[in-house]
Amino acid sequence: MVFGRKPKEDSRSAEVAQRATPIGAASLLDELGMHHLWYLERRLTEELARAARREGVFSLICWRLRGLPGETIPDELVAKAAAIISGSLRSYDVFARIDEERFVAILFDAEQQPATTVAFRIKGEMQVQMQTTGRWQAGVATFPHDGVGGDSLIQAAFRRLTEDAHAPVT
After folding, report:
1. What DSSP letter does each residue of 32-99 carry, written as one string?
2. All structural domains of the chain
3. What's the predicted TM-score (pTM) here?
4. Hey, CA dihedral for 7, 78, 132, 112, is it positive or negative?
5. If you average pLDDT over every residue of the chain, what do you get?
6. Which residues of the chain have pLDDT under 70?
7. Percent of the chain clearing pLDDT 70 (strictly above)
8. Which of 9, 28, 77, 134 has its CA 20 to 30 A from that of 166?
């Protein structure tokens, strides 16, 4: 597992269910319209191989709501964040929720600057449209500039989340 998060159910039964279920558009999305994390991981692996073969480029974007310690995002805010992200990405980009506070998206064929523009535009929309006590953060990593493996790209994007946390508020 690339993201290091165990599914809520036993991982072995989840793998069996993935193989037994035909992959259709409905089975790839959860109840909020986000892709399942297993599908995002699969697409990331496929995109890494494709981009390496063809000297391509793509970006990985992470968003996080930085709240008070121990605070979790209420379900209605998760639904609102999912709607904002899905409405702002291209139909073929893949996005999912990693854990209680982080979301991630793969932007296919997107270089660093355009991906950063998208990430911070969405971050701004979430900050304005969602009344929260916390502050939204964004981080972007681009293949091959920030890494050539899934783990290195994810870690680079997470580091950028931390850098965004220390940026002055404008």
Report:
1. TSPBPHHHHHHHHHHHHHHHHHHT--EEEEEEEEE-STT----HHHHHHHHHHHHHHS-TT-EEEE-S
2. 33-165 (3.30.70.270)
3. 0.81
4. positive
5. 85
6. 1-26, 165, 167-170
7. 82
8. 77
